[in-house]
Amino acid sequence: MRLEYFQLVDRIETMDAQGGTIVCRATIPTESTVFEGHFPGHPLMPGVLLLECMAQTGGHMILARNNYDKMAFLAQADRAKFRSFIVPGDVLDVHSKLTHEGSGYAVCEARILKDGKTVADAEIRYRVLPFPSPELREKMLEFVRSVGHTGVA
Hints:
The protein is an alpha+beta fold. It has three helices and six strands. Strands 1-2-4-5-6-3 form a six-stranded antiparallel β-sheet, with helices on one face.
């Protein structure tokens, strides 16, 4: 996880793009400027970044499902729940399952597990649109390859 670069997924563990499921791994860094203010002397991973981690996980699956020609942009989050504190060094498994797709949008149910126990969950809605530039598409493909998705040409 590289918080300063907003790269919140370390590795794609499993993905079935056609079946609409994905599991990613994310390790909270032990050092980050984010923790200097959230909170001094008691560092906690901000909930908004946990939500973004869930959104990025589902986004990777939607990207693959669309043959890397369209990108998923976070549009809405519903019923988000944060059940436990996440601290530096925690290792998270992030699951996302596609529940609806059509007309330029997609919906996923996402959850974060720590030590096998759900610590956060949400319904994530995405706008699914063509990449706004070829450069962004290429950068995204480079990142997807770096996190272990081998289905990218």
